[in-house]
Amino acid sequence: MALTVRQKQNIAKEYGLHETDTGSVEIQIAFLTKQIDELAAHLKKNPKDNHSRRGLLKMVGKRKKLLAYLEDSNNKSYTSLIRKLGLKK
């Protein structure tokens, strides 16, 4: 369920602002998106797993808040990130 170190490094390399960037809003949103995708696949196989469903809802809420912050602070970065991740506005 959790992302491996290699997956996190690849995401940070792709969405990071610079070489040592590990905590920018863009990377946090990309991490959450990857985790949400994996958890959604898990819930399709295990529809009665309500504990994981609650975690999924918390992650979606956190990503929504981060996206709203990014949209307010840096609209250009927001639109490019939305396009890269394939999310709806």
What does this structure look like?
- The chain has one domain (about 5-85): Helix Hairpins (Orthogonal Bundle).
- The chain is an all-alpha fold.
- The chain contains four helices and no strands.
- α1 (about 5-15) packs across α2 (about 25-45) and α2 packs antiparallel against α3 (about 50-75).
- Helices cover about 75% and strands about 0% of the residues.
Summarize the structure.
By secondary structure, the protein is mainly α. The chain is built from 4 helices and no strands. It is globular and about 40 Å long.
Chain-wise SSE layout:
Blueprint: H1 5-15, H2 25-45, H3 50-73, H4 75-85
Helix pairs in contact: 1-2, 2-3, 3-4
What's the CATH topology name? Answer: Helix Hairpins
Morphology call: globular
Proportion of strand residues: under 5%
Overall strand count? 0
Number of domains: 1
The low-pLDDT segments are none
Major sheet summary line: none
What letter string, H or E per element, gives the SSE order? HHHH
- The level 1 CATH classification is Mainly Alpha
**What is the CATH superfamily label?**
S15/NS1, RNA-binding
Terminal residue distance = 26 Å
Helix count equals 4
Helix content range: over 70%
Structural class: mainly alpha
CATH architecture assignment: Orthogonal Bundle
